[in-house]
Amino acid sequence: MINYDEEIKKFQPSLEVEEAEETILHTDMSDIADVIEKLMVPKEAKNR
Amino acid sequence: MNCPNCGYKIVGHRRSCVKCGRDLRAYESLKRLSNKLYNEGLAEAKVRNLSGACDKLKRSLEYNKENIEARNLLGLVYYELGETVAAIVEWVISLNIVKTDNPADDLLKQLQGNANEFRDVKSAIKKYNLALEMARKGNDDLAIMQLKKVVDLNDHFVKALLLLAVLQMKHEEYQSARKNLKRVLKVDVANLEARRYMNELRAIAAERGKSGQPSSSPAKVDNVTENEGAFGISKGTPYREDRPNFKAFLFFLAGIVLGVLAVVFFATNLIKAKVIAENSEETGRMGTQITELNARVSSLESEKSILESKITDLTGELEYERSVVEEDYRAFLGLCVGFDEIRNKIIERDPEIPVSGEERRTVEKFYEKLDRFDASGIKDDEALLAILDKMKEYLFRFLNPENETGS
Q1: Per the domain annotation, does B2 fall within a domain?
Q2: A27, B41, B362, B404: which sits with the fewest CB atoms below 10 Å from its CB?
Q3: List of chain B residues whose C-beta atoms are within 8 Å of the C-beta of residue A7
Q4: How far apart, in whole angstroms, are the C-alpha atoms of residue B164 and residue B340?
């Protein structure tokens, strides 16, 4: 049996137009390549 | 792809950077994975599994943030789900990564070009957020009213449809909830929340069926969901025996009866018209004949009058002729009577009494009278003519006895 109130809580508000600029500026643009890069730099530094 | 170390633009597939020598094999693998996920996301988007496509495309971007095809497609998926601003965000980021020859530019221009639609989208998002706030506070009725306006403005707004369906289920408006969930599944065939709520409706219907309560709306949901396979794709309609459709049969019969009546009606009218035409023709012909006959009658009447006058004339002539013949016969009779007197009184009296000179002259006059008699009136009567000749011969012998003795 679904708990309707719990279900309602799961819903998130939708992005409004006024928030678009803020969202674009603060979007996390890192991907796995960036993560690998972060991991590899210290390793290379160690190797040196 | 740019070298993650020096930023040098690498063209094609390389094991190491041309400039700094960084090993690029790992990055090439990530690119391949990103592309693979993009392809899978594209395939799912094509069959309207937007939730699945969204997930795949996000993962694609996690492997390679510079995969603009994946980002643009993700924006399109968001747009289709009713998340217009999220779509704009993705397209703007895509344009920032690749500024030229980017389809995201056209997509943004199209959206900005349609001002009315953009206004409706903005209004729908605001109302949705307001409705969500009301629902969280417990003002379900107001939230439902707002959400109905939202879905009128944007009938693809999946989140709004789902929230509306949940509130309706909470208030046992199962029929309406089912309708809205169906609308969600039309947009996003594999939407997990929608399927979960549909299952819930089916469970409610089953429970009501067991308890004997009227199960109008949930029962319908039951029929719908059983026919749907994975991701809402229809398995096909279940086998049903063909029942005779009496309504259709009745309509068919009614159609036949009407058709027959129409044919009879038109045929009757046609025959009537034909008969009238024929009668008119006949009447016309008879009229002509009557005219001709009348003319003939008039001419005959005139002939008759002519003939009657002729008859009158001829009758007159005949009368005259008759009168003439009768006169002749009377005259002849008179002669016969005169002859008889003369014979009795003069010729065949006592022979001892001599015939006087006067008596002789009387006989001679009578003989002349006989001789001068116009016998044309009795010319056709041979007996009378013979009598006349005999009378004349008798008197001639009396008057000329020497002829008798001399011969």
Answers
A1: no
A2: B404
A3: 166
A4: 163
